[in-house]
Amino acid sequence: xxxxxxxxxxxxxxxxxxxxxxxxxxxxxxxxxxxxxxxxxxxxxxxxxxxxxxxxxxxxxxxxxxxxxxxxxxxxxxxxxxxxxxxxxxxxxxxxxxxxxxxxxxxxxxxxxxxxxxxxxxxxxxxxxxxx
Length: 132
Prior knowledge:
There is one protein chain. The protein contains three helices and six strands. The protein is α+β, with helices and mostly antiparallel strands. The chain has one domain (3-130): CATH 3.30.1330.40. The strands form two sheets. The chain has a four-stranded mixed β-sheet. A two-stranded antiparallel sheet has the order 1-2. Helix 1 (47-64) packs parallel to helix 3 (89-100). The longest helix has 18 residues, at 47-64. It is globular. The relative contact order is 0.28.
């Protein structure tokens, strides 16, 4: 992998994300993915199953470019329910580890009032760099 996690000297290491990543290679931009199936059907209205499906969708798009989870450099998450997110963090962590292992890219979590696709609770967009 041709990337380097950036953490300025003296900074406390972040937990569950990276402050920055330097990477070289082929850029892949992945549009916001919600927690629906390939047929655009939500199988659950709950946050954790939607998060799992949305992350699987991100990884499926990335795989089309020949990428793997460790090539993701940035994920932005948009979530409609802060309380549900905070309560589900242990479960979300288990899902993350099952799909992403111990790879923690730069991440932002933004809480929003609604998503276009109902009953969507979370949307994930990503940027990856696949080594040359």
